[in-house]
Amino acid sequence: DAGITQSPRHKVTETGTPVTLRCHQTENHRYMYWYRQDPGHGLRLIHYSYGVKDTDKGEVSDGYSVSRSKTEDFLLTLESATSSQTSVYFCAIRGTGHPLIRGYTFGSGTRLTVV
Amino acid sequence: QQQVKQSPQSLIVQKGGISIINCAYENTAFDYFPWYQQFPGKGPALLIAIRPDVSEKKEGRFTISFNKSAKQFSLHIMDSQPGDSATYFCAASGPAAGNKLTFGGGTRVLVKP
Question: Best exposed site among A17, A46, B19, B92 by fewest CB in 10 Å?
Fold first, then answer.
C-alpha cells in the first residue's frame, strides 16, 4: 500500500500482556498516525507523530503509548492489553502541505484480539 | 463527542441505482472533507475530497455535495455497481486541529446485481 507496511497483520494476546504494533513507511513522510477501527465508531485517532521523537495524543490515547525514533518507523504499544483494546489498528502517513494535496495513506491494518 | 456524524449505517441499493450517504460536522474550522472507501481486509483509501469554497465536486460516478451553512456534506454514487460494495467513511480536518482527520462512523454499502 504505497510504501506503508504494518506488522503483524494478526495477533492474539492475553489480557495483561504488553503488545507492540509496528508501522513502517518508505515515503519519508513527516506525519504518521495510529487509528483504531471499531464498528459504529469509524476510525478514532490514538496517537500521532509530526516528526522524529515528536508525538501527541489523540482522542482515545488511554492505555496506549507510541515512539518514533526514526522517520520510517512509528510504534504503538499497549502497555497491558485489555479486552476493550480488541480492534483493528490502522497506521496512516501524510506528507507536508495541505491534506488536499497530500492526503492520508493507510496501511492494511493489524487485527488484534485480546483474550 | 462525535464531531462528524454519518448516516445511514448501512445501505442496500440495486445495480444502476444511486447511493447517498450523508455527514454532518460541528467544527466550523474544518476546511477539508474527504471520503474514504474501504474493502474488507484493506485499509481505507481516499476516494474524493472537497474544500468548503466549492459546493460540489464530481469524479466519475462519485460526487460530493457540500452545504457550508448547514455544515453538511454528502456522497452520491451514481449508477452503483456491485464493485462499489464497500464501507464508506466521511472525514474532516482543519489546520486548527493540526490537520488530523476526524472520521464519521461509516456506512456499509451493498449493491445488489
Answer: A17
Contacts of A8 by beta carbon, 8 Å cutoff, 6+ apart: A21, A110
**What is the tens place of the pLDDT at every residue in B48-97?**
999 888 999 999 999 999 999 999 999 999 999 999 999 999 999 887 76
Instruction: Tally C-beta pairs within 8 A across A and B.
Output: 63
Q: What is the dihedral of CA A77, A83, A86, A91, to 10 degrees?
A: -20
Q: What is the rounded average pLDDT of the residues A24-40? A: 93
The residues near B41 (Cβ < 8 Å, ≥ 6 apart) are A108, A109
A50 interface with B at CB cutoff 8 Å: yes
Name the one residue in this structure whose C-alpha cell is 448501512.
B10
Q: How far is the alpha carbon of A60 from chain B, nearest alpha carbon, in Å? A: 11
- Among all chains, which residue has been given the C-alpha cell 526514526? A70
Contact A79, A20 (CB under 8 A): no
Nearest to A99 among B32, B45, B89 (CB): B32
Exposure string for A92-107, b = 16+ CB within 10 A, e = fewer: bbbeeeebeebbbbbb
CA distances B31 to A110, B94, B100, Å, are 30, 5, 11
Test A42 with B105 for CB contact under 8 angstroms: yes
- Which is nearest to A53 in space by CA: A64, A35, A67? A67
Rg of chain B over CA atoms, in angstroms?
13
In chain A, helix, strand, coil percent, each to 5?
5, 55, 40
